[in-house]
Design a protein that fits this description.
Radius of gyration: 22 Å
Helix content: 10-25%
Strand content: 25-35%
Structural class: alpha/beta
Order of helices and strands: HEEEEEEEEH
Number of strands: 8
Largest sheet: 8 strands, mixed
Distance between the termini: 86 Å
Number of domains: 2
Shape: elongated
Length: about 150
């Protein structure tokens, strides 16, 4: 009887451990199982130099989403972002690629607009600003073209 109880407790411990491992895998891998609490929005940039997938999308310094994918289409970069469902973006919002710190990671900062109509789920942000190219700016300064 004691041996049976020991086997049962070890089996239960193993199942709890596997459940914890599965939970951590889903959470750390950022996998959505049953829909999500966000919606897609696209923006077209002339260049996305240094922007990476899973980069932050912020508004007023608060993270409101993440970059889901970056694709090249007709010579322009199409960036798909996943925005939290409780955040509404105005039609005239502006998406800019910014740098955190001097040589830090790139992220997308969204400036809110003044329109009373909102971008539909899966819609597009029309106004965009590409990242500032520091190398080009320093080159212009060094060679006196500023």
């Amino acid at each position: 009887m004691g041996n049976r109880r020991l086997e049962l407790s070890v089996g239960l411990f193993l199942l709890v451990g596997l459940a914890c491992l599965a939970y951590l895998s889903v959470k750390l891998g950022q996998i959505r199982l049953w829909g999500g609490s966000d919606y897609p929005v696209q923006a077209t940039f002339s260049t996305v130099n240094g922007l990476k997938i899973q980069a932050d999308v912020t508004m007023a310094g608060v993270q409101i989403g993440r970059v889901e994918s970056i694709q090249l289409k007709s010579g322009a970069a199409i960036v798909t972002m996943r925005i939290n469902k409780d955040v509404n973006l105005e039609e005239d919002a502006i998406a800019s690629i910014k740098t955190s710190g001097i040589i830090g990671d790139k992220y997308i900062a969204i400036s809110p607009g003044a329109s009373e109509t909102y971008i539909q789920r899966g819609g597009k942000i029309v106004d965009t600003q590409p990242p500032l190219d520091l190398e080009e700016l320093i080159g212009k300064f060094v060679f006196g073209k500023v």
